[in-house]
Amino acid sequence: MPGALANQDLIRNRLPAWRPVSRLAAVLVFFLIGVAPRIGVAQAPRPVAPTQPVAPQPARPAPAPAQTQVQGQVASAPVVAPDYEGLVILIANTLIALNQANLTDNYSVLRELGAPDFQKTNTTRRLGEIFADMRARKLNFAPIVMFQPKFVRQPEIDARGFIRTTGFYETAPLQVHFDLVFQSVAGSWRLFEISVWTAVLRQ
Predict the structure, then answer these.
(1) Domains identified in the chain, total number
(2) Which residue range(s) make up the domain with 27?
(3) pLDDT for 76-105, tens place per residue?
(4) pTM for this one?
């Protein structure tokens, strides 16, 4: 899966909020493949294999409550999985935050959306460096708000209490692919890893 929770892939890289998905009449303009990060280390994009979307289902809950680190205090709290609509908003808000950061060269909001470990690892300057290629290509993927994401695997909560969402938007001429990991912090889902990239729409 080839832009910042910054750790694994960049546009192919690895970086939520509830708001109705607005209908924007925008024209999608993309150029080649961009580059994004995951928490910690940004990686180069890798080739995209054909993907088969899976039917959307609510994220599955973890078998047991997870523990969340809050301001140095370990507090046990049950992890509540977001429903499908919640996941759609969470993903769209994250990608739009990245898109606006790229357009303005200001990554402060994107960083603030991250979990504590994400913020600790990634300064705004580092995020700017990670997404420099995407910014230089002037990619604008705001039109994703007009589409529903297609998941290539079912989102689910792992043993750590993290939720991973992997899929793409059927935008044209380039699809927008994402691989996002979110961490539950004080009852709110925060960005932990981000990987975003584009691929040519296969006919």
Answers:
(1) 1
(2) 1-45+82-203
(3) 556 778 899 999 999 999 999 999 999 999
(4) 0.64
